[in-house]
Each structure stands twice: as C-alpha cells, then as structure tokens.
Amino acid sequence: MLQVLPIVLMMVVAGDVKDDARTFLEKCQASRFEEASANFDAKMKEVLPPAKLSQTWEGLIKQLGPITKTGEPREDKVGKSRRAKIRCEFKSTALDALVSFNAEGKIEGFFLVPAEDSKTAEGATKRADPPYVDRSKFTEEKVTVGAEGWPLPGVLTRPKGTAKSPLVILVHGSGPQDRDETIGPNTPFRDLAHGLSSRGVAVLRYDKRTKAHVARYVADPAVVAKITIKEEVVDDVLATIAQARRMSGIDPDRVFVLGHSLGGTLAPLIAQKDGKLAGVILMAASNRPPHELIRDQLDHIKKVDPDQAVELAKDKTIDEALARMKAGKARDDEKILGASVYYWKSMAAVQSAKLAGSLAKLPVLVLQGGRDYQVTEVDFDAFRQALKGRANTAFHLYPDLNHCFQKGEGKATPAEYGKPGIVDERVIRDVSGWVRSIR
Hints:
The protein has helices at about 15-30, 35, 40-45, 50-65, 190-195, 210, 215-220, 220-225, 230-245, 260-275, 290-305, 305-315, 315-325, 340-350, 350-360, 375-385, 425-435, and strands at about 65-70, 75-80, 80-90, 95-100, 105-115, 140-145, 150-160, 165-170, 200-205, 250-260, 280-285, 335, 340, 365-370, 395-400. By secondary structure, the chain is an alpha/beta fold. The chain has 2 domains: about 15-120, Nuclear Transport Factor 2, Chain: A (Roll), CATH 3.10.450.590; about 135-285 and about 350-435, 3-Layer(aba) Sandwich (Rossmann fold), CATH 3.40.50.1820. The strands form 3 sheets. An 8-stranded mixed sheet has the order 6-7-9-8-10-11-14-15, with helices on both faces. Strands 1, 2, 3, 4 and 5 form a 5-stranded antiparallel sheet that branches. A two-stranded antiparallel ribbon has the order 12-13. Strand 10 (about 250-260), helix 10 and strand 11 form a beta-alpha-beta unit. The longest helix has 16 residues, at about 230-245. The chain is globular, with a radius of gyration of 21 Å. InterPro entries: AB_hydrolase_Est10, AB_hydrolase_fold, DUF3887, Hydrolase_4. Its EC number is 3.1.1.1. Keywords: Hydrolase. This is Esterase EstD.
C-alpha cells in the first residue's frame, strides 16, 4: 500500500528449530548477517548472501521500525520441512516470522506474514465493521483474476437487488499487498469494498502478484531483478479489467479503476492502455520522480520519529544512492530501499498528471489526505493543474486524513499504521456518489 519501500519480503526459513530460528533473528537484529546466513542451505546462500540479507533486513526496519518484542517460538511441519514461527512486534505492526529448516537442519526459507492472532480463519484481519458497512446490502464471492500464468485469488463484492452494477477494481500501493491492502490492524481496501457495496457499487479486490506468487520470485532472483511496474501491477490489472467486463451482474460499460498510492499513480497509464474504462479514482497518487518522493518521506520521518531517525542516520548510503539516481548515474541492478534502480526508473517514466491531462474524455476523481506525508498536496496540485477546467473531473482534499485516508491530528507518523482505524466515511460517500453519477 505504501508509495515507496516496496520490500520484497524474504522467502527463506527453520535443530532445536525453535532455538535456531530465534538465534537467526537475533543475529539479524544485531546486524551480524555473516553469522545469520552461516546456516543457510546452498539455495539460500545463492539467493540471499550476507550483503543482500543485510540490505533486505535494513529496508524492512526502515519501513516498519525496529522490533520491540518477540514471542516464544512455535514449531510445526510443512511437508518434509520443520518450521518455527516467532511473533515479532515491530514498532508499527506485528508480524510472524516463519523460519523453515531442511532435514539437515539448514535454513531453507524465511518470510514474514501478518501475525496469526490478527487473522480470522479465512485469513482476513479481525475487527469490527465500520459503521457505514451494511452487510445485508451486498454479497461476496471468491474469484480468480490476473494475467495468464499468474492466477490471483480475490473477492467480488456485489450489491444485492441490482441487475447491472457499476464495478470498481482496486489497485494496490507498493509492495506485496493482499486483497485488503492490510497494514498492521488496518484493511483500507476491505473498508472501501464493503463501504461502496453498501451504497450500490460492486468492488473487485485481489492479492497482488508479489504477494500471491512470492515463492516464484524467491526461486528466481533474475525475475526479481527485472521486475517493473508493468509486471508488478499493470499486466494483472488489464487482464482483470477484461475479465470483469464478462462477469454476470456487472455493467461492462461502467468499469472503473480505483488506485491507491502507487495504484493511483498508475491509474492513468492503465486507463490509456485499456482504452475503455468508465473512469479512474486516484487516491494519494504521486506525480514526482521517486528520488524526490523518497527524499521527502525520509526527511519527514526523521522529524517525527526519533527512533527511525537514529536508524536512518546510521545508513550513510541512502543519500548517495538517491543522488546517483537523480543524476542518472545509478546502476540498474543497484538496490535503493529494497527495490532496484531498474524498478524505480519504470516508475519515474510514468508522468501521471500529464498523462491524465492528455486523456480528455476520461472522467477522473482525485482524492488526497492533508496529513499524508508519503504523497502530499504538491502531487494533488499537479493533478488539479493538469485537469483544470475539465467538466468530467472532481477533487477532494481532506485536511485531517492520512495516507490511508484515516482521521488523525497533528503530523502523521509511521506508527499510525500500527493503530486501528478505518477509511473515513466521507471518502466512501464521495467515491460512491461520483461513480454512480458517471453514465
């Protein structure tokens, strides 16, 4: 969901397997990556050598904050592998670290998932419905979407009593997002889906390719090295749009894309490539090059979060890397905050506001949180200027909402993502009203 820091979560993991897993995490926390990787099997040593383990771990800490507490390890089996599961409470959220071991006791896999106690039996985060959700007004059904060869599990939320509903397809922010765009205890995409369908709008959401097929990426580092916004997002959205138009009960002429963060940035490109969308909704869409966006985010974090400021100050390479990327001198295979320069270039090539302005017949709704530090009013104003005078556009700035469109006070901080909240009802009202008005 976040605009930057698209960490590709490590897929690697678990002796006594419980003790060995705990030791592995302790060495990572202490930045002793040579020692942490000493017990890797041959495949792990190839995929995640010490330097890459260090880079990935430090990127994770920058995004989620330091680990403040770990739970007691639990052991289970997956096929022939033994696995240890350890709850890790990062500053902004709780995750379960899964460390798996082969028959020789070597670490063969490691990845992080939302903490088990925050999930229902169906895998969704536990919490009460927002007050604007009325479950009597919609149904949900499982679907499979995505580009050929990349099946993605998802959910279609459909209003009751409507023969042909307008459909909004939700497009995630950066990183391996699930269908709810889960971050900590928050599920912005589920809020949107249930809120919009309570107001007569069908919604389709699905697990992102980098979430649903993480094992394929880990198994082939060359694929990860060449990933761009096309493979991460665009291909699957275009295939999903085409499939959605054939779904029963959906009006094929009223299919919309709602993109959040990176998804919002890419929505005009998706509309251009599809050519038949009824409209796009941009929520916290950026229009600046990645080096500028990242620099502003890091500067804000240093001001509002002392602990992360200390961690960021330890890494002297970020500023140099951003400067090289700005000057066009960074190598394509160089990693900056968990993603390759090759990836960042693909994002920089999308001049979103200019592209949106060139699509004269495309209805556009632009939403921005005034407390958002990841995407700011500078980006919002770029879209407002590019779309100035267009009769088929609308703009909403919510001064008290953050990047997830949740209400708050004062300067937003990364720690907010670890606190329960809901997408503000004004957003649900404005999006549903706008979609229904487009004919």
